[in-house]
Amino acid sequence: MTARKINFYLGALSTMPAHQRLFDHMDKLTAMQRVFMEIAPPQLAQRCTLGGFFEGNLTLCAYNGAIAAKLRQILPSLLLKFRVRGYEVTAIRVTVQANYRSITGRELAANGPAGKRQIGQAGMKSLVGLAAGLPRSPLKSAIESLLKKKNE
After folding, report:
1. CATH fold of 6-102
2. What whole-number distance in Å separates Cα of residue 117 and Cα of residue 67?
3. Mean pLDDT of 7-17
4. CA 58/CA 56 separation, integer angstroms
């Protein structure tokens, strides 16, 4: 069987009446995403996406809480700008949804998979100094345990 690009299959599906409503909705969301990228401050627009649009309610998915807080501050102006562009947005809901694809290959290679990160020599020396200066406590025990595991 010949391999074909997914656009070929999506194009064929978009012409079928059973899927027309879905593809119309996706086209509208794509257009709204482009508009959002134009009307939102660039530092915010790059760190969030449209989650959905139904009956005038728009959902924005921010990558973290700080971005979500900033978006909530500018919601009234975003509503007005969407309306000026011809979209009947009556409410905007902001949610936090981490985007794990935003981690670059370089960051992943440097940090390794979660749970397998390494502590450098300078970090180890700092931990030894910290443990030596702490009084007997659960924190000191935890640091000593970590140092013991690293030395094994």
Report:
1. GMP Synthetase; Chain A, domain 3 (3.30.300)
2. 27
3. 77
4. 6
